[in-house]
Amino acid sequence: MQQISSVNNKTIKDLAKLNKKKYREDTGMYIIEGFHLIEEALQAGRKFQYLLGTDEALNKVEEYGVDLSSKSVILINKAITRHLSSTKNSQEIFMVLKIDQPKEFPFNYGKWVLLDNLADPGNVGTIIRTADAAGFDGVVLSPESVDLYNPKTQRAMQGSQFHIELIKQDLASVITTLKSYDIPVYASMLDKSAKELPDFEKVPQLGLVIGNEAHGVSDFIAKLSDEKLYIPIKGQAESLNAAVAAGIMIYHFA
């Protein structure tokens, strides 16, 4: 085990930068925080670059089979945990992992959520967590969608990033691939040609497109889709939150 006691240490300075997208992309690494996420990573067999925590916090993760004598384990103080943390109430435990996101859509039969330019990290993380809970195979994010390794997205996913496929890729190519295997693609949107969600039967495979929070599914992606669907609003609310709407649709097809 290493021990670092200064926030001015070069390793600590470099790791603190991983809370910013540019440095995650430059280094190919990202940081997660908290016992639950770290437990999920360990249970999924993910190998870490570094595990950092206070003495008390590191003792808690030892029960997960972590070798605390490893050079990859770093004992830090509370001042450093505050420096590294992206939350107000840190659990004083951090893990640095390699970004292992596939660069191409690894086609497999099943059920996929396709996110078209979603901008809110909480929404994206919640949708991924819901897709995981409902037994979907994966989530594909368009290149313009929020960064998967944003700390807020990581917290909202609650470890689901270690359970299902997550890919960033051009949605048009993914939709073309799905349709070439006769897998239907449904786009969620308010449109005159859209059908109500209850009119759709469950299918063994599908691609379900969820659009941007403000602008919905782009016209180009909508045209590529086989059908358009919407959730009927029974009260006076104008619309549903993107993650809530996605959850309703995901479980309809689960």
Q: Outline of this structure?
A:
By secondary structure, this protein is α/β, with parallel strands linked by helices. It is 33% helix and 20% strand. The longest helix has 13 residues, at 121-133.
Give your account of this protein's structure.
Residues 31-103 form the RNA 2-O ribose methyltransferase substrate binding domain. Belongs to the class IV-like SAM-binding methyltransferase superfamily. RNA methyltransferase TrmH family. Pfam families: MRM3-like_sub_bind, SpoU_methylase. One of its GO terms (biological process) is methylation. Keywords: Methyltransferase, Transferase. With 254 residues, this protein is an alpha/beta fold. It has two domains: 2-98, 2-Layer Sandwich (60s Ribosomal Protein L30, Chain: A); 111-253, SPOUT methyltransferase, trefoil knot domain (Alpha/beta knot, 3-Layer(aba) Sandwich), CATH 3.40.1280.10. The protein has ten helices and twelve strands. Strands 8-7-6-11-9-12-10 form a seven-stranded parallel β-sheet, sandwiched between helices. The protein has a five-stranded mixed β-sheet with strand order 1-4-3-5-2. β3, α4 and β4 form a beta-alpha-beta unit. α6 packs parallel to α7 and α6 (121-133) packs parallel to α10. The protein is elongated.
The CATH class of the largest domain: Alpha Beta
CATH superfamily of the largest domain: SPOUT methyltransferase, trefoil knot domain
Number of self-contained structural domains: 2
Strand segment count:
12
Question: First CA to last CA: what distance?
Answer: 45 Å
CATH topology of the largest domain: Alpha/beta knot
Tell me the Rg in angstroms: 20 Å
Query: Largest sheet, described in full?
Result: 7 strands, parallel
* Mean pLDDT over all positions: 95
